[in-house]
Design goal:
single chain; 4 helices
Length: about 110
């Protein structure tokens, strides 16, 4: 199922981002860089919850079980959205910080 391909891709992404964060001392020390990785972790958890829930929806034989799985899938969607916002905000902070550093170097003789 395609949803599991997405989940596996998200797991791979978060593993590699975490490894990059751990080997780069400057990034590890930067709160915004850590927040980017935390946001991806939140998205990953949401993606896994959604994948499990959608699978349960497809396998459910009764409406109450299907409804429960649908509710869980929705929680996964919310987590992915929250993680995306968390990651995007940190990314914006990183860009702002880089712009300030660039402009201060240009303006200071």
């Amino acid at each position: 199922m395609a949803i599991w391909i997405q989940a596996i891709g998200k797991v791979m992404e978060v593993i590699y981002l975490t490894k990059l964060l751990l080997i780069d001392e400057d990034a590890s020390a930067d709160q915004n860089e850590r927040q980017v990785v935390e946001g991806v972790w939140i998205q990953t958890i949401g993606q896994i919850i959604e994948a499990i829930s959608v699978t349960n929806q497809l396998l459910a034989r009764t409406d109450p079980i299907r409804l429960s799985a649908t509710s869980a899938a929705n929680i996964g969607d919310w987590l992915q959205g929250i993680g995306s916002i968390y990651e995007a905000y940190a990314g914006r902070q990183i860009i702002t910080k880089e712009k300030e550093a660039l402009f201060s170097n240009i303006l200071v003789p």
